[in-house]
Design brief:
single chain; mainly alpha; 3 helices
C-alpha cells in the first residue's frame, strides 16, 4: 500500500472495524446453524467459529496498528488509552 503513514493507519483502522464486525456475524451464523442443525457444504460450524476467532485476532492487530484509541477500545471491548512514555518516566 502506498501513501502516507496516516493513510495507512486509517486503512488499518477501517480493516479492524470490518474484521471485528464480520467476526461477530460469522460467530452468530455458526451459533444459529448449530441451533437448527444446519450445515454449509464443506464447512462445519466449528470451522466457522475458528474463522470468527481468526478475524477477531486480525481486528485486534489491525486496531493496534491504527493507533486509534476508539477503534482499539471497540475491538478490545473496554476503554483503552495510549500511554505516553514521556509522562510516565
Amino acid at each position: 500500500m502506498t501513501g502516507s503513514s496516516d493513510d495507512q493507519k486509517k486503512a488499518r483502522g477501517e480493516l479492524a472495524q470490518h474484521a471485528f464486525e464480520t467476526a461477530g456475524r460469522v460467530q452468530l451464523l455458526a451459533e444459529r446453524m448449530d441451533i437448527v442443525d444446519w450445515r454449509i457444504d464443506g464447512y462445519s460450524t466449528d470451522q466457522l467459529k475458528e474463522l470468527a476467532n481468526l478475524l477477531r485476532g486480525t481486528a485486534i492487530r489491525a486496531a493496534l496498528a491504527s493507533d486509534d484509541e476508539k477503534i482499539v477500545s471497540m475491538v478490545m471491548g473496554k476503554p483503552m488509552n495510549r500511554l505516553d512514555p514521556d509522562e510516565n518516566g
